[in-house]
């Protein structure tokens, strides 16, 4: 967590907003339908917008995501740890397919 955001994410206002949004989404990831885990800001919180309630506490700026979809959001496909051009041999060594 970014140092400038610690106080916000510990605030009662954020916890209430996050919990209400989770309930509105029935606890399901909005991208894949798996159980949701993290209420994520679509427009990332920065030092310049952290006091803007239209960014921080607006349900229109939130997504409920599972861990996989959150990782995809933050790291993208270019850093995926899953490859389809390699496999393990019978001794557990990584080899080309």
UniProtKB/TrEMBL annotation:
InterPro entries named in the record: HNH
Record bears the keyword Thylakoid: no
Entry keyword set: Endonuclease, Hydrolase, Nuclease
Ranges of residues in domain HNH: 29-75
GO MF annotations in UniProt: endonuclease activity; nucleic acid binding; zinc ion binding
Name listed for the protein in its UniProt record: HNH endonuclease
